[in-house]
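Lab notes, practical 5.
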Amino acid sequence: MTVVRTWVLPVLRILIWAVIAVALVVLAFRGSGGTEPTGATGAPGVDLGSSSIPVGRGTVTNTVTVDGAIAADPAVPVKATAAGTVSRLRVEPGATVAVGDKLLDVRYEEERDPIEGTDAEGNPTSTPRDPLVTVVTVTATAAGRLATLDVLKDQVVAVGDAVGTISPGTLSVTASLSQADQFRLLSPPGTAEVTVTGGPAPFTCTGLTLGAPQGEDDQATAGVDPMTGMPITATTTARCAVPAGVTVFSGMAATVAIQAGEIADALVVPVTAVQGSVQNGTVWVPGADGTPEERPVTLGLTDGQQVEITGGLTEGEHVLEFVPVPDDAAADPYGMGGPYG
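Output from the prediction step:
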C-alpha cells in the first residue's frame, strides 16, 4: 500500500492532467482560425442582418381593445337663476324629477320710483310705491333623483350658487387610453363593444367620446411603460353610455373594444418593418449593392401587427422585415479601442 500511495497514484494523477492539457491545446488551436479538414462541416454562422419580405395585400381592422370599468354618471348641479331669498322649497331630497320640474322659488324685490304729481292747490307731490316683488322658480335641468337640496327657506342666494344636485341614475363605461391608443383613434367611432366580466352578453354602448379624465374613477393608469416599467398616466379617457335595460353595476370590470376602421385588400407590411406608426413612416429597402436604403412611406390603418401602406411602396417590392438598429457591440470599458480589447 505504501508503494501505491507513494508512486502509483501520483503518476496516474500526472498522466490525467497531461491528457486534459493536450485536449485543451487542441481545442484552442481548432477554434482560433485553424484550417478545418476538407469536407468538415462547421457550425452555421449567425446572420445579424434583417431578412427582406415582399409588400403584400391584406385586410386591416383597427380595433383598440382596452380594460375599463362601469361607473355611475356624475351628478348634475342645480344652480340658482336669480339673486334673492328662497321663499319656497317645492320638493324634498330623494324625489324623482324630470327636466323642467319645479324645485324651489327665489323671491327678490325691486325698488320703484315714487309717483310724482300735484295736490289740489297745485303743489308737487311724491307718493312712494311698494317694491316690485318677483318670484323666480328654479327648475330641474336633468332627469333623475334629487340627490341633495342644499338651501333652506329664507336663505339668501346669488345667481349661479349651487343649490342642489340631481343624480341621473345612469351608468357609463370608462376606459383609460395610452398614447399609442390615442394615435390609433384619431377618427373614433360613436360606439364601442363592451364585455363585462361575469356579466351579461357583450353589448354596444353609445355616445362614445374621448376626453380628459373627469374624476377619480377615470384617473386609472393606462398600462405600464415597457421601457421603464413605470405606470403610464392616463391623459385621455374613452367614455360611452350603458344602454337602458342592460343590468350592470358601478365598479364592475369591463373590456372595451373600439373599432376605428377596416380596409380590405390593402398594401400591408409588418409594423416591425416601419419606423413610425401614424401618418408618416420610414422603411428600408435592399439597395443594388445590398446596403439598406431608407424610403419614406405614408401610413393608414394598423391593427398592431401590420400597417397599411398608402404611398411610397408598390406590391411585390421588398423591405427589411425589421427596422435596422445601430451596432450596439459593447465598448471596451478600459478604453483599449475594441470590444474588451
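Observations recorded by the TA: The CA atoms of residues 74 and 167 lie 7 Å apart. The radius of gyration is 39 Å.
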